[in-house]
Amino acid sequence: LLCLTQSISTSAATSNGLGKPMGHLNDTQIQSAQKAQYAATILLITCLATTKMSIVFFVQGLSPIVSHRKWCHLLGGATIIWFFVALLTTVFQCAPPRTWDDLNGKRCVNLRAWWTFVAAGNIFTDLSIVTLQVYVLWGIQLQISRKILLLAIFSTRLTVVGAAITQLVLYITSLGSLDVTFRAWLPVVLNGTVQFLRITTSCIPHIKRFLDSLESGMIRVEDPTEEATEAATDDRELKTIGGSNPTGVRSYK
């Protein structure tokens, strides 16, 4: 839904002259394009954050080991902090009431520094997610060939990192032009590319055949301390249920 509304906002900006030289547009078109792109950027950041969190929750559900869950919580917290800081600086990139007007607005943020922070945080959290996936999946007791296949599937998220780096470089390069409507076309295309790759790579682990291939391994990822506790509990239950009757013990087993 966020991706859809972001695409609609981008289309509205395009219909008002985004991608065309400013000299061919009137003031109303320029302002409409700026407003639509302002909304599209807010939706883009929100979409990126939600897809990151969906993967963090998915990885957290793969393993019952406490250390894995702690890393998931840490990464989820870092993602939320990045999201709120990026969102607030985007919403208030210029002083009210013209917060959307980075051309004529007052007290606007440094766009180069702002986008560097947003993109760098985006890249860092994605790399951390891939590292966490590899860390968790490596502990699964599977054949090496299947384990490598699963890791390769999760590593598809590195394509998002590559696109985000390209996005950062080209956006900073485009800031050298004062033509705000024309210079934006390539960064906007890359925004859509990053968004598409992020949603796609977030959906891949939820494909049924992929989940079925994990089934045999997931049940073997156990916390050694929990395993010892459960074994002691089972031993006490066996003695209680079976008593002096061996048949009762065998039945419970």
How would you describe this structure to a colleague?
The chain has one domain (1-214). Helices cover 73% and strands 0% of the residues. The protein has helices at residues 2-15, 27-60, 66-91, 111-137, 144-154, 158-174, 185-203, 208-218, 224-242, 246-252. α1 packs antiparallel against α2. The chain starts with a helix and ends with a helix. Keywords: Membrane, Transmembrane, Transmembrane helix. Residues 225-253 are annotated as: Disordered. InterPro entries: Rhodopsin_dom_fungi (IPR049326). Residues 5-211 form the Rhodopsin domain.
Describe what is shown at a glance.
This protein is an all-alpha fold and 253 residues long. The protein is built from 10 helices and no strands.
Attribute tags:
253 residues; Rhodopsin_dom_fungi; mainly alpha; single chain; 10 helices
What is the typical, i.e. mean, pLDDT? 81
- Sketch the topology as an H/E string, one letter per element: HHHHHHHHHH
Kindly estimate the percentage of residues that lie in beta strands according to DSSP: under 5%
Let me know the largest β-sheet.
none
**Uncertain ranges:** 216-222, 240-253
The count of strands amounts to: 0
Rg result: 25 Å
Alpha carbon gap, first and last residue:
50 Å
Structural class: mainly alpha
Helix content: over 70%
Shape summary: elongated
Count of helical stretches? 10
How are the SSEs ordered, and which strands pair?
Layout: H1 2-15, H2 27-60, H3 66-91, H4 111-137, H5 144-154, H6 158-174, H7 185-203, H8 208-218, H9 224-242, H10 246-252
Helix pairs in contact: 1-2, 2-3, 2-4, 2-7, 3-4, 4-5, 4-6, 6-7, 9-10
